[in-house]
Each structure stands twice: as C-alpha cells, then as structure tokens.
Amino acid sequence: MAIPAVLIVDDEPDLLDLIELTLARMGLDVVRAGSVAEARACLQARHFDLCLTDMRLPDGDGLGIVREVVETSPATPVAVITAHGSADNAVAALKAGAFDYVAKPVSLEQLRALVRTALKTPESEQSAGEAPGLVGTSPAMQQVRALIEKVARSQAPVFIQGETGTGKEVAARLIHAKSHRAGKAFVAVNCGAIPEALMESEFFGYRKGAFTGAEADRAGFFQVADGGTLFLDEVADLPMPMQVKLLRAIQEKRVRRVGDTQEEPVDVRLISASHQDLARAVEAGRFRHDLYYRLNVIELKMPPLRERREDIPALVEHILTRYQLGQGRSRLSEAAMLALQGYAYPGNVRELENILERAFALNEGEIGAAELNLAPEPASGSDSAVRADQSLQDYLDAVERQALLAALEKCGGNKTAAAKQLGVTFRSLRYRLERLGIH
User: Fold this and answer.
1) Which of 52, 60, 175, 330 has the fewest Cβ atoms surrounding its Cβ within 10 A?
2) Beta strand spans in 95-166 (E)
C-alpha cells in the first residue's frame, strides 16, 4: 500500500519543521513548500493525498492554493492554517472548498486529528442519482442532490434552510452518510425542545456531583457525536447565552463539561437547520452575527413541495410503499392523484404523508378526491388561509400577529392584561411582540 503524501506550505521554517516531524512520525511522506510558487510547482509535479497551507505567504495567500487544488484535484482534501482568532479567514477558506482548518499556535493533537480525518476521506463513489430518502427528479431536487454530493466531502458547517416538512433532517443524514464520517454517530438535536436550564449540560455533558442529581459522569451531544456529525435542528431557537457557548465550542473545537475544570477536544461536523430566516433573526437581534457566519458557511435550501409538483406521483408511490398502505385493498383514483398534484401543501412532504395515511386508514376500495379531505383552497383575498405562495410559518405568524393586536386593542394597550386574556405569561407575550416586530 502506497504511503500517503502530504504537501505542507508555510513560510515559517520552524513551523514547517514541527509539522514535518509530526507527520513523519505518523508514517507519512511529507513535502515542504515555502511559497505559493513552490507549492504550485509541487502540485504540478506529483499527486498528493493531502495539502496543508498557511493563509499568508510571501507571494500570495493560501486561498489561491485552496482553489487550485479544488479545481485540479477535487478528490484531494486541502486544509488551511489560520492566525489565532481569524474567523473570517477560516470561513473564507471553507467556502473556497477547504476541507478543514487549524489555528495558530498549532495544536499537535488537533493537527493529528485533522490529518487522520482527511486521509480517511474517500472519493465519492456514489452517483448524484437517486439518493435514499430524497425522492423526485425535478430540477430543484437535482440541485439539492448535487450540492449534497459536493459538501459531503468537506468539513465545512452546513446550514439547511427550508419550511417545516421539507426534509431538512433527511438531507443532513444524507450528507453524513456520503461523508467519511458515515461509520460514526449522527446525533440529531431539536434545539427548541430542550429547557434553557438544561442546555449546557445536554450539549457538553457534566461531571458527577456538578449539581443535585448528577450521580455519575455523563457525555453531552458533542461527546456522543465525536468523530461523526452533530445536527442542530431549529438552531434559531437557541437562547443567547447558549449561542455564546456554542460559538466557542465551534471555534476552539473543545468543550468543557459542567463541573469540570478542563476542556476536552471534540471532532464533530456541524450541520444546522431552521425553518426561520436566520438573516432576519440576526437583524432582529435574536441571533448572534458571528455565530450565523460560523454556521452558514455553506447554505442548502430545501424546496417546498408546491415548487416541485412534478415529484408528487413519485412521492406518493414512495410513501405508499414505505408505510405499506393499501396492501391491495385500496388504491388512489386518477381524480385523487390530480387533487394531490393541485394542492398547496403548507406542511410539505410531512403533510402529504399524513393525508395518505389518513385516507388509507379510513377508506377501502378506490379513494377519490373527496376521501382525501384536503383543506379548502383559500378564497380570493382571504387573510385567514394559507396562500399557495405563503409558507406555513408566515401564515402562523400572521395569525399570531392578528391575535396579539386584537388582545392589545381590547385591553387598551395593557400588556399584562393582554397576556392574561391570551393565556400566556407576560414574558412570553413580550417575546412574541419582539419577534413579530410589534411595538
């Protein structure tokens, strides 16, 4: 078996010596370069299994080397060395196609972990054809598959934007399954379902005796996902204090358990998702600007079902097979299929699943359009129903806004009285008013 070859590019001889010695002890064939020109000559002369380059070089910057490796040898992972605290450079490198980064002063433990991870990265052996869980051949889904194939080879954080029910977690699992981390854990976390008081211990774990009830050491989400992928669903729901702690964990690649005095290194690939517009959340002051740019290095948008209606017949067949619906006793009529293709689906694929499960559970024989019990189409000019071009979240926000304004008007602007009338706490009312921009 050939010895993996690694190209290291830096203009600091001492750092080159340190990295070369470390990698040589790992049994690797190391080649050094002190400038962009030398690096390009090395890349043209032979094949490398990994390239590690500094961002600042005498005759250019490392981004040029990153782009050249990505264009000429896309199967070769390239990582960058960034100055301490230079988050912008790290993000720029990841967006340019870098596999990962290591910050100065270089931690040898982190460097070894990066190299071991990079050299396990396989060339993509899976085609960009039909991927398990993503059904349909519409142009929108073909774009999603192509981007999943591309980002699976990287370490860059991915943010998945999409309405409720569009398959954000399915996409995240596919990225994990197509990556070199496929043999490790995929940990999915719903950020909106964890009580704020428990968030730190759930994410980072705790030591025995850290608080009342901590009877033994416990690993958090980061430790469980070590070597694999951590999927943060509805990341926009994270409270500000937890956003600060998450940002540090991402930057340092280390976490500290509650009740511990030492940090421990973790190697996780972060994928996050939300049905909310994170950019708007940043503008509203509900989400940290620096965390947003750390999570949103690569953005993947999941299209709503109403924008890929040509995929509905294939989705119906897939759902019927997956849930074993009908089993020969029932079938959809042509009119029912036409009705399904004409429906707006505010709940997207998840709603389609519910419609079919309900119809096959309550009916036998041929199922017509009436047996689907589809929600009525909104009347022209109606404000009380979901429009075909409106997301479910926008519709719910509009309904919530109307209820809040009505309660405030009835109570003469008294927020305490309005909260009591609506059956929510004053704090909850205040949060809802701020979220919807009601002053």
Assistant:
1) 60
2) 100-103, 158-161
